[in-house]
Amino acid sequence: RMYERIERAAANLSAFLLFVLMMITFVDVVGRNIFNHPLNGASELAEIVLAMVIFLMLPHVARRNQHIVIDLIENVIKPRMLVVLDALAAILSAVMFALIAWRCWVLADRAVEYGDKTAALGIPVGPVMYGMAILAGVVAMASLLAVPFSVEHLASRADGAQEPVVS
Predict the structure, then answer these.
(1) pTM to 2 decimals?
(2) Neighbours of 41 (CB within 10 A)
(3) Looking at residue 73, what is its pLDDT?
(4) Where are the alpha helices (DSSP H) in the chain?
(5) Measured distance CA(48)–CA(46) in Å, rounded
(6) Cα–Cα distance for residue pair 60/129, rounded to 1 Å
(7) Among 15, 72, 81, 91, which residue has the fewest nearby CB atoms (within 10 Å)?
(8) Would you state the pLDDT for residue 39?
(9) Cα 167 to Cα 150: distance, rounded to the nearest angstrom
(10) Pick from 123, 139, 142: nearest CA to 49
(11) Which residues of the chain fall below pLDDT 50?
(12) Beta bridge partner(s), residue 117
């Protein structure tokens, strides 16, 4: 499917960007400690690359509902209620990321209008913010895609179906 190919491309790009982040850090540390000359703009590059990695992988995490969770009430409430809470969390996540997308877009417009650039390297901030806004919108939609899985899981539990064993 098309979504799976896009997801795989985003994962591959994220892996490459993590390698780039590692190389930026390596060159900066070696330059600073051995040659007493750090990589100019390393912190700016690291910030931008890290934001790209995070926002590229968030749609994957949201669609598969693989966010980090703390299970404080799992043993106290019924499994059906957990699935309902899971669906509500996905909806709330979609709303929050839609708000993030909107605000990032507004900030990107402002950055382009003012000609904002990073201090050391002069990288335009607007395009980075637009990318974050678009990917936050994708995360919002991916979060909504996770809701039917929660509802489907709730329906299967209501029918008395056994939980699949994952090894």
Answers:
(1) 0.82
(2) 18
(3) 81
(4) 2-33, 42-63, 79-114, 125-158
(5) 6
(6) 20
(7) 72
(8) 95
(9) 21
(10) 123
(11) 163-167
(12) 124
Instruction: Please give the Cα distance from 67 to 139 (Å, whole number).
Output: 12
- Residue 146 CB neighbours (<10 A): 23
> Do the Cβ atoms of 67 and 96 come closer than 8 Å?
no
pLDDT confidence of residue 155: 63
Specify the 3-state DSSP secondary structure of 68.
coil
Question: How many CA atoms lie within 13 Å of 20's alpha carbon, on the beta-carbon side?
Answer: 17
Q: How many residues does the chain have?
A: 167
Rg (CA), the chain: 20
pLDDT of residue 167: 38
Q: Which pLDDT score is estimated for 31?
A: 96
Question: Taking a C-beta distance cutoff of 8 angstroms, is the pair 117, 123 a contact?
Answer: yes
3-class secondary-structure state, position 144: helix
- 70, two tokens: 């703390």
